[in-house]
Write a structure and sequence with these properties.
Layout lengths: L14 H6 L5 H18 L23 E4 L2 E4 L5 H16 L3 E2 L14 E3 L5 E6 L7 H9 L5 E6 L12 E3 L5 E3 L6 H10 L5 E3 L2 H5 L6 E3 L2 E4 L4 H9 L3 E4 L3 H4 L22
């Protein structure tokens, strides 16, 4: 996670920011971030490291966008919007400091890390979102990185600008289930998801849950941590064996992110995990 000390909505690069611009309550944001941190540490048995935020980079708190961690390697993001490009150097230095092998992207490819690239929790699939932030051409580079380990990259086109990153509308869960909002995807990509995932593995959410960022959740050790879920969604998740913990993150939703955006998993799969 990255410290929220400098978080605020200072510009508009997604639809959520239009209403959040200039309305951030910094104290409330700090309390919400701290509550999420405490839940992850105390109720999911997760170990959390915290990166210091940097001046002039208010979205750095959304550490999921730092890059993609895989088998001791770190693929740093290349952001589409100049407002966030300053984060790239700091997160790359952080990864090097932890001993990751850094694999930079080829020129002219945009890629926004674990915001758009999500490992399935059961199948050898890396789900890749494109359409708003990540270039379709990122698929070839990522395939080169993960195919030796037996992984397949499955690309999905995002079509609703409110759900500009894959992790805002698609959440791989422990055990191979996926929580998703189908209306955020092109018809072709909806068909791809349904062809890869059997109906028993798909938990579809409606407009209300999607707008409360239910899909932007952290799934770890049988627990799902999210901003809010309807009674119906909570029941479906519970019936599938999950414990659901809701914690308010509305200050961060003003900028277009919730619990998943605020975290970057460092225990992503290793090579040959499925072969």
């Amino acid at each position: 996670m990255c410290s929220p000390d400098r978080f605020r909505v200072e510009y508009v690069i997604n639809p959520w920011m239009s209403e959040g611009l200039g309305h951030t309550d910094s104290q409330r944001a700090r309390l919400q971030w701290s509550a999420l941190h405490a839940i992850l540490v105390n109720q999911t048995d997760s170990r959390v490291t915290v990166v210091d935020s940097r001046e002039g980079l208010p979205d750095m708190v959304f550490s999921a966008n730092a890059g993609l961690v895989y088998d001791g390697r770190f693929i740093p993001s290349r952001f589409r919007y100049p407002e966030r490009t300053g984060e790239e150097r700091h997160f790359t230095e952080w990864a090097k400091g932890l001993g990751y092998e850094v694999r930079p992207l080829p020129a002219a490819i945009t890629f926004e890390g674990a915001g758009d690239a999500l490992f399935d929790r059961k199948r050898p699939v890396l789900w890749l979102g494109h359409g708003f932030r990540t270039s379709p051409s990122a698929e070839a580079f990522l395939s080169d990185q993960v195919q030796p380990g037996g992984w397949q990259v499955v690309s999905l086109e995002l079509t609703d600008p409110r759900y500009y990153h894959l992790d805002t509308c698609f959440c791989p869960l422990d055990g191979g289930l996926v929580m998703w909002f189908p209306a955020a995807f092109s018809a072709e990509s909806q068909n791809i998801v349904r062809s890869v995932l059997p109906e028993s593995s798909r938990i579809e959410v409606g407009e209300e849950d999607a707008a409360h960022f239910a899909c932007n959740a952290v799934s770890v050790n049988g627990t799902i941590v999210m901003n809010r879920a309807s009674q119906n969604l909570r029941a479906r998740l519970s019936n599938n064996g999950f414990r659901v913990i809701e914690t308010p993150l509305d200050e961060f939703i003003r900028a277009g992110g919730s619990s998943k955006c605020l975290t970057l998993r460092l225990d992503e799969p290793v090579t040959n995990a499925f072969v």
